[in-house]
Amino acid sequence: MNENRTQTIIILGMAVAAIVGALAAVFILMTFSSGFAFGFGKNLSNQAQVERKIVDLIEEESASIAVVERVTPSVVSVVAKQERGKITANGTRLYFSPFGITKQPSLTDEQSKELVEVSSGTGFFVSADGYLLTNRHVVDQKDAQFFVVMNDGKELPADVVDVDPFQDIAVIHVKGENFPVATLGNSSQIRIGQTVIAIGNALSEFRNTVTKGVISGIHRRVTSGSQVNAEVIEQAIQTDAAINPGNSGGPLINLRGEVIGINTAVSVQGQSLAFAIPIDEAKRAIEDVRKYGRIVRPWLGVRYSLVQPDKDEKINFTYELGALIVAGTQPGEPGVIPGSPAEAAGLKEGDVLLRIQDAPLTKEKSLSDLVSQYHPGDAIKIQFIRQGVLKEATLTLSEYKKDKK
User: Do residues 282 and 308 both lie within one domain?
Assistant: First the structure.
């Protein structure tokens, strides 16, 4: 009887222990699960996010590498060379030494004809039969012979086909076929913050140097060149991708490997300020060369400065921006060029141009931008203010001749 009672107590104790153990296990499991959800799970979630970020960075890096490897073969160095005997200063051949400038010893005929590199920039193929884009200032060398240096170091003679009279754009050509071609994108679709890559002949020495950055601004109006030979770039793309001397004329590309701009200028007043010409501006030049053998630009024939409305002006309409016709800064530079379409239409200095074919001038669309959309021979309607009175006129655009002043 006692044994049966003892067995019953033992069995009952075991049952109670099992129940308690089960309850404890459930409690621990619930606690662990809660801890996982609110602690461990969060840590694992953070780790997953970090790993995902790493994967994204690796994928972006791989994409950048693939893009550069695809575009780089189409990028070349553009080199200008002159005969040593023609490198003169005031008719006397000179050379530089640590002790100053001294006369160069007499050269033999062979030495005089030796070609010497005087400048270099960058360019890129836009057709398999040898047409390339670069900057106008890269090939703006008198009495120079031009060459392109391929990615493999091979040097080929090049001819300047034409230069754009208004944009810092030039088209050059080398004989041959099956050249690697860069794909041209659409610069009208770019966005601020978009990642871009610049490829160029950095410092005129390091071929196909690659830098990366973002688009910092669009529709910039900047002046490039020196004080002696300065020019205004309309609709420039601003980027913080490093662009050094020698990068001029190289491609600015997106992560799809499409060229969206031509690197052209660096600000000397601030760091990380570089500019490129939108590729859409260059497409027209390529088309013209294919069709006419030269770059064809329409011409209005006025010098102007951009102005905003005068608050005191008593007129019954408003405008965002106007183009005030003004004389040039040098003697003999009238606001309206003699023999121009503007003169034929009766425009005068002091007139403020407002619209071209009902399209208003804005900060994003200057007068030259609006005119460039048309072709020589096109008749366009212009709207302008003269002494506070709104007027209209129709003129026929002509082709700009590069010898015009």
Answer: no
Active site residue 137: yes
Query: Is the pTM higher than 0.85?
Result: no
Asked if residues 218 and 189 have their Cβ atoms less than 8 Å apart, the reply is no
Residue 157, domain CATH: 2.40.10.10
Q: For 193-250, how does the pLDDT look when each residue is reduced to its tens digit (9 = 90+)?
A: 999 999 987 655 666 788 888 998 888 876 655 444 456 677 888 888 877 777 889 9
pLDDT of residue 58 exceeding 80, the answer is no
CA–CA dist 166, 296 (Å, integer) = 11
3-state secondary structure of 392: strand
Claim to verify: residue 281 and residue 303 sit in the same structural domain: no
Catalytic residue among 164, 168, 288, 351: 168
Of 195, 302, 205, whose CA–CA distance to 258 is shortest? 195
Judge whether 17 lies within some domain: no
Single out the catalytic residue among 74, 77, 119, 137: 137
The answer to whether residue 168 is catalytic is yes
Q: Which residue of the set 120, 204, 248, 366 is catalytic?
A: 248
Instruction: Please state the domain count of the chain.
Output: 3
Mean pLDDT of 169-181: 95
278 pLDDT exceeds 50? yes
Among the three residues 230, 259, 292, which one is the final residue of a domain in this structure?
292
What is the rounded CA–CA span in Å between residue 172 and residue 135?
10
Range of the domain at 111: 73-173
